[in-house]
Amino acid sequence: STNLLRKLFEAVGSENVVQVEETVTKLSKDYYWYSPVLDKQLEHKRADYVVIPDSYETLKAVLQLTVKEKIPVTPRGAGTGNYGQAIPMTGGVVVDVSKLNKVVEVGEGFVTVQAGMRIRDLEKKIMESDQELTIYPSTFVKATIGGFVAGGSGGIGSVTWGNLWDGNVLSVKVLTMNEEVSELLIDGADLLDYIHSYGTTGIITEVTIPIKPKSNWVQELISFSSLQDVLDFTRYIAEDDQWKKRLVTVVEAPIPTFFRPLKKVIQEKDEHLALIEIEESDLTRLKEEAKKFHGRSIYTAEASSYRKGIGISDFTWNHTTLWALKNDKNWTYLQNFFSLDDVHDQIGKIKKRFGDEVLFHIEWLRDKGKLIPAGLPLVYYQSQERLYEIIDYFNEIGASVNDPHTYLLGAGGWNLQLESIAKKKKENDPYELLNQGKLPTHLVKETIDQ
Ligand code: FAD
What we know:
It contains 14 helices and 19 strands. By secondary structure, it is of the alpha+beta class. 49% of the residues are buried. A hairpin with a 7-residue loop joins strand 7 (171-175) and strand 8. Among the domains are: 103-213, Uridine Diphospho-n-acetylenolpyruvylglucosamine Reductase, domain 3, CATH 3.30.465; 217-396, FAD-linked oxidase, cap domain/gating helix (Vanillyl-alcohol Oxidase, Chain A, domain 3), CATH 3.40.462.40. It binds flavin-adenine dinucleotide. The site of flavin-adenine dinucleotide has 38 residues, from strand 2, helix 6, strand 9 and helix 10. The site of flavin-adenine dinucleotide (FAD) has 38 residues, from strand 2, helix 6, strand 9 and helix 10. It holds the Pfam family FAD_binding_4.
């Protein structure tokens, strides 16, 4: 209403409120359209207002107003999430924190940074002290650090350092939606109520993450004619601590042919590909070992060209799906954990049942210290029924799926402590204003009724 708009202007200044209709629409969306299921469900969701606070005080002021007026709030970083996490289900105000983007402190082994800072900018900053990030998503150029903590899982670096839940967040500061909006400092086990909880328990304003001494990363593409060989080779590299690495990816043929910028280096249609980022000093040995597994080095980018132009991580994690979509818009994807010792068998079964309807993409990663071949398989979409038939089959054979076709927290997997998150929400957001509709209603209701 015009009344509310007037109050918003009063609280935060008109310069912090988005007034262009198309921009409001744009900032109400994320990459939900990766999923044909979510694409249908969320297409028309839109915020009534978008506020982009230019300071911590302005952020606090808009939150205080929304509490007073009982208006729904959906936090937003860069909006690169894939599950509609940042989409307002019930209108209200989208609060875009991307202008809270200052580094607070770079220490030895840690950095404290405001939530809205882009991960790539953060990386540049910490490299000034010869340090680097542990883990980051393949969207690091755009994505914010707060959005990663609140809505992501893992990425480049996870093969060595694990996911967000594995010590890669040291503490966060959050603003709560209590009568008096207040700040909390969260660390230790309490972080589990905030990591990947879509901002349902609080607005993250500051993040402290561990950082490590900088390495010299070389990017390497190795081609294989057998899927078994590429899996065995990459498992060996991923498993053995003697190799210093931050990315070990496998894509099945013909996925490499979807990578248009690599057209010159990828010639054989039926070749599978390993995409690896490894310490420069390990490169010669890596190439020798690859030969033992019948692998052929087809491209090396020396350490001096790291972060210059397109990198191989632009073809990994969920970027793989992006290249497939550019090739044919019917591709979509799943997320799953294969079991380390049954991965060949599980892949064989899925191939037999679904043929080329499913193409394998594996990210080797550590989860609570355990090495896991994590799948981001491409699925040629036919219908929602068929998609869930495929998901059911994956689960049936123990290749457990984290469903990326739902915006509901917990329904997507990741073993979240949902009851605890719901309880924390009751404390921090008693009017249930934060990211409405994302926490399954039975959880919200149960805790409210108690
Ligand atoms: P947003 O999308 O803006 O927000 C994510 C969630 O967090 C939303 O629920 C939002 O409401 C909430 N949120 C945002 N900021 C805050 C805050 N300050 N306080 C509280 N809540 C907040 N993800 C991975 O984990 N690893 C990958 O490798 C990866 N690769 C991807 C590749 C592609 C091509 C795409 C499209 C997505 C990929 N993603 C990946 C998903 C996503 O890009 C990342 O998780 C990213 O870190 C999200 O950051 P963002 O700033 O865009 O967050």
